[in-house]
Each structure stands twice: as C-alpha cells, then as structure tokens.
Amino acid sequence: MSLADHTTRSFADALDDVSVGVLPVGSTEQHGPHLPLSTDHLVADRIAGALDNPNATVLPTLAVGVSDHHRQFHGTLSVSDETFERFVRETVESLAGHGVRKVAVVNGHGGNKPALERAARTLRAEETAFCAPWHWWDAANYVIGHADQHETSMVQHLAPALVDEERLVEAEQDGTESWGKRVHGASIGFDTADFTESGAVGHPAEGSAMLGEDMFEESVAELDAFVDWLADRPFEDLLAEPHR
Ligand SMILES: [Zn+2]
Q1: Which of 13, 27, 103, 165 matches a 20 to 30 Å C-alpha distance to 159?
Q2: Whole-number pLDDT of residue 242
Q3: CB 32 within 8 A of CB 198
Q4: 232 CA distance to ligand 1 centroid (A)?
C-alpha cells in the first residue's frame, strides 16, 4: 500500500508487516514528438503502484530528475546530480527513521543512475539503509535507447491517450540509431540535441501496446521478487563485510 494513503496511526500498525520501502523516481523531460514529458516517472510510478506485496510500502513518486542534457527541448525540467542525490538520500534516511531500512528505488530514467549509485553507497556506508537502484529495463532485460520502441510500448500500454501516434514515423526518421556522437574516438554528444533531431534514439515506430504489456508484467514480477529478496534478509546481512 502507498505510504501516503495511510494515516500516521495506520502506518505505525502497518510497520508490523512492512520492511521494504519502494521509491519510484523518474524525470520530466522530452521523449520525442510522440511521448509525454511524464514518460519516465509515469512508468516508474505505475510499476511501483502495481506491486501487491505485504512486505512493501510505496513512497510518493519523484517526478523530476537529472535531465540537463535534454534542456534544449521544450518542457524538460531538471535538477542537478547533487540535488537529486541528496533528495533521494534524505528521503530514504527519513524512512529509515521509522525502521524501514531496506529500499528499492524504482528508476525510470538513465540520467538518474550516477546519483542513485552514490546515494546507495553513502546510505550503506553510514549503515543507515540498504537502498538498491532498480532500473525497469535491466529487470526486464532490455537495452533501451530513448523514446524508443520499448519506452513507446510502455506508454502505449499504460496511457495510450498520451501517445501521439501520428508522430511515430517522424520520431524515428528524425531520430538516431544509438546514443551519443563520436568523432575520431572523442565523445562529443554532450546533449541529446547534438545527435537527435526528434529527441528519439532507437525505433519508436516499432512499439506496440502488446510489447508494453509484456515488459510491464515482467518488470512488476521482477520487482515483486526483489522486494521478497530484500524482506528475507536481515538488514545487517546487507552491509559491506570487512575484508582482511
Ligand atoms: Zn525515458
């Protein structure tokens, strides 16, 4: 159940069963001419929201992430790496204060990864919480681009009214095959606008609601299994072992 839907008293009672926090995070950023700016937080929010696991409490979704590299595209919002890392770390610290010290961060946006990894390392080093980044595309074993067939399929499944189907071909034609731009061994694709006109990377026109449904179900099942894995382990067992 969602933490925010509890009263403070009913949450205190729920703590008899709940040992894992689930924190959905994403971004609000361009996803080509065909997908909503909400794509990354929408997907994370829905995956976490679909969990039906008595060990877990789902925290409110963080809808703005690290997206400075998309800023040339209208509507993109962003915070710095440091701000995002700190927001996640302090949110998890406050949850740990109620005794929930194992957390899965359900992430919908690649740009959040470095900050999430640093937050996780600090929280464990300080023995505050074990806070594992969980990226839906890794859980479902997909190598994703950006606003590509995988992300497009997810939104076609979860929120079809938000997909501009008439712009799929344009998204693909004015997009690019792979992330980044290289010249004589140098990586010079600092911003997505450097290498994709439409904002898409991959093959959005190959998306389908059916693929989206499969990926979504797979992701929810993997998250559910990971929550059980966390719930089964005492917090102390998840801390780093001293090596001698
Ligand atoms: Zn995305």
Answers
A1: 103
A2: 76
A3: yes
A4: 32
Nearest-angstrom CA–CA distance, 201 and 233: 39
b or e along 125-146 (b: 16 or more beta carbons within 10 Å of the residue's beta carbon)?
eeebbbbbbbbbbebbebebbb
Contact between 34 and 168 under an 8 Å Cβ cutoff? The reply is: yes
Q: Residue 143 Cα, ligand 1 centroid: separation in angstroms? A: 12
Domains present along the chain, CATH in parentheses: 3-141+215-238 (3.40.50.10310)
Q: How many residues does the chain have?
A: 244
Q: How confident is the model at residue 240 (pLDDT cuts 50, 70, 90)?
A: confident
Measured in angstroms, how far is the CA atom of residue 125 from the centroid of ligand 1? Answer: 30
Dist. CA 148 → ligand 1 center (Å)? 8
Average pLDDT for residues 91-107, to the nearest whole number? 98
* Residue 20: its H or E element: strand 20-25
Q: Which residues contact 209 (CB under 8 A, 6 or more apart)?
A: 153, 156, 157, 160
How far apart are the CA of 142 and the centre of ligand 1, in A? 13
